[in-house]
């Protein structure tokens, strides 16, 4: 298999590339612009593999994308490149509109023209997987789950840009026949997670004795999935998903934010009892504007149709994750010192 992955230097993209290169043995071309969130250090374990290539390019650059398709000749595209952080989209949405919407359009149109010229066998085998989020569905109340048929109702500039890109992808299927599949996944966590997101930010702040900023009262619920479970799901959907279909991805691990932070503190208390209790560092801060109350995924279509199941529970995954950060300071220290040191993002005057 020849798989063109976009955003493969990011958190989920790097887990996917490691899985495809080392686990599956696919030929992989990783196309990434290396924004603040892209980090080739996350790909150290595969960088010299004969079945791995890297192309430093922006998905919005149509000429570079056409060259990449023409020279690599993929059977499958797995599109993950995006601006992914909700708080940054609140501070300024320009890059989100550009990469998530215009970039997805650029890639789709490049893929369509490339696919049109393939012979009949390769044409019918070709797949374009668009990797999206459960945030397109908006916010749940106390009951219910997001299903593939749940209407779109995005709240943030980030989720609105992802919703727009999902609509483009489905339109390219209905109008041009491009064999696309869309995956909508819940919150990921695990190794190599950029420390702007809740879990890695809390781990590193707690390790450094810094305040743990919990937005609002901490009662917002997210449905957590270990990143390696997501990488397996993405390969399953790209290889066996039905064209034109959407698949929700999640591991049935709903947790309130405050309970996630308490769990991280308890694990760190076990390791550094002299520095505990880490809970004393928790600080309830101004809420995120437009903060969605609850996300929860019904992944039964993916489980019953394609046989995927999450392997990690939240308890096993969070234990592994905290220990990974304890053991891999070489990876996160340069990011904390040179790229993002943990200051609050996504608040503005008037809220
Ligand atoms: P990330 O921010 O860690 O990585 C994004 C990657 O895309 C980076 O390597 C970055 O350099 C690259 N990139 C950004 N703009 C680009 C451009 N114009 N051209 C080429 N490359 C570009 O993101 P992530 O958390 O790994 O998310 C990957 C995908 O999965 C995104 O599409 C996101 O919407 C989706 N998703 C994320 C989660 C989650 O919990 N993180 C959950 C569901 C879906
Ligand atoms: O649901 C999937 C989405 O999950 C992905 O599409 C996004 O790319 C990904 O970033 C993630 O979005 P969230 O906004 O849910 O993740 P984040 O880690 O930013 O926040 C998780 C929860 O924790 C959310 O309710 C806000 C809260 N939070 C976050 C930060 C960074 C805090 O309370 N304090 C914080 O410092």
Automatic annotation (TrEMBL):
Catalysed reactions, as listed in the record: dTDP-alpha-D-glucose = dTDP-4-dehydro-6-deoxy-alpha-D-glucose + H2O
GO terms of biological process kind: nucleotide-sugar metabolic process
Domain of life per record: Bacteria
GO terms for MF: dTDP-glucose 4,6-dehydratase activity
Gene source species: Rhizobium leguminosarum
Pfam families in the record: GDP_Man_Dehyd
CDD domains from the UniProt entry: dTDP_GD_SDR_e
Family: Belongs to the NAD(P)-dependent epimerase/dehydratase family. dTDP-glucose dehydratase subfamily.
NCBIfam families, sorted: dTDP_gluc_dehyt
Ranges where the NAD(P)-binding domain occurs: 4-321
Cofactor(s) required for function per UniProt: NAD(+)
Transmembrane segments: none
Protein name in the entry: dTDP-glucose 4,6-dehydratase
Record InterPro entries: dTDP_Gluc_deHydtase, NAD(P)-bd_dom, NAD(P)-bd_dom_sf
EC number: 4.2.1.46
């Amino acid at each position: 298999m020849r798989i063109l992955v976009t955003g493969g230097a990011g958190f989920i993209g790097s887990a996917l590339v490691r899985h495809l290169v080392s686990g599956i043995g696919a030929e992989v071309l990783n196309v990434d612009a290396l924004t603040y969130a892209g980090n080739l250090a996350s790909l150290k374990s595969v960088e010299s593999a004969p079945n791995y290539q890297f192309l430093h390019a922006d998905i919005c650059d149509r000429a570079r994308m056409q060259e990449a398709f023409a020279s690599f000749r993929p059977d499958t595209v797995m599109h993950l490149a995006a601006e992914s952080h909700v708080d940054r989209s609140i501070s300024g949405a320009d890059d989100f509109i550009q990469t998530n919407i215009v970039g997805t359009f650029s890639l789709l149109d490049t893929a369509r023209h490339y696919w049109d010229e393939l012979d009949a066998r390769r044409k019918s085998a070709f797949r374009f997987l668009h990797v999206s989020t459960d945030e397109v569905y908006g916010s749940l109340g106390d009951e219910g789950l997001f299903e593939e048929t749940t209407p779109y109702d995005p709240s943030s500039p980030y989720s609105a840009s992802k919703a727009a890109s999902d609509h483009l992808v489905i339109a390219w299927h209905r109008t041009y026949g491009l064999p696309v599949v869309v995956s909508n996944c819940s919150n990921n966590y695990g190794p190599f997670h950029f420390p702007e997101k809740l879990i890695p930010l809390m781990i590193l702040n707690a390790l450094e004795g810094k305040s743990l900023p919990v937005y609002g009262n901490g009662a917002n619920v997210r449905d957590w999935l270990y990143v390696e479970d997501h990488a397996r799901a993405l390969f399953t959907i790209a290889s066996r998903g039905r064209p034109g279909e959407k698949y929700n991805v999640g591991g049935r691990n709903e947790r309130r934010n405050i309970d996630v932070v308490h769990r991280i503190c308890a694990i760190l208390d076990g390791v550094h009892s002299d520095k505990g209790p880490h809970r004393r560092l928790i600080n309830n801060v101004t809420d995120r504007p437009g903060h969605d109350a609850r996300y929860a995924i019904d992944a039964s279509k993916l489980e019953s149709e394609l046989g995927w199941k999450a392997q990690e529970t939240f308890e096993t995954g969070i234990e592994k994750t905290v220990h990974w950060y304890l053991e891999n300071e070489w990876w996160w220290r340069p990011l904390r010192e040179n790229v993002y040191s943990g200051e609050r993002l996504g608040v503005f005057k008037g809220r």
